[in-house]
Amino acid sequence: MEAMAKLAAVGVTAVVLSAVLKKNTPELALLLALAAGLWMLALAAEGLGAAVALMEELADQAGLSEALLEPVVKTVALSILTKLTVEICRSAGEGGVAAFVETAGTALALLAALPLVRAVAQLMGELLG
After folding, report:
1. Rounded distance, CA 107 to CA 119, Å?
2. For 45-85, how does the pLDDT look when each residue is reduced to its tens digit (9 = 90+)?
3. What is the dihedral of CA 7, 75, 71, 63, to 10 degrees?
4. Helices in 25-94 by DSSP H: which ranges?
5. Judging by beta carbons within 10 Å of its beta carbon (0-12, 13-18, 19+), is residue 29 exposed, middle or buried?
6. Rounded to whole angstroms, how far apart are CA atoms 77 and 43?
7. Residue 117: C-alpha distances to residues 32, 43, 70, 111 (Å)
8. What does pTM read for this prediction?
9. Which residues are within 8 A (CB) of 59 and not within 5 positions of it... i.e. 6 or more apart?
10. Residue 111's CB: how many other CB atoms inside 10 A?
11. What was the pLDDT predicted at 16?
């Protein structure tokens, strides 16, 4: 709860300052948004680490290999990074670049998930064979 209060404070402050800066120096407004975003990600990193640790613990309890967990974590990380990059591009008025980032991010997420797809297919083959 405390982390969310900090995130909200940073976010609101960044929005207000960005609105003021956009009038005269839109480039600085974009840099401010980037800096605030990175700060907020750093605040949230601890929570993300706890989520990954819990996933590893549950996978261990279920007897799953960490090799199966890795594609899930990579896909989620790619999705978050893609979403953030797309929104930054759109905020900068670069909708075309945002579309390319979104497409590339989707392709990379699919690529990261392929080992999981392979493992599921092998498991299904073992169960059916």
Report:
1. 19
2. 877 788 888 888 888 888 877 777 888 889 988 999 999 99
3. 50
4. 26-62, 66-91
5. buried
6. 16
7. 40, 33, 12, 10
8. 0.76
9. 65, 66, 68, 69
10. 13
11. 92
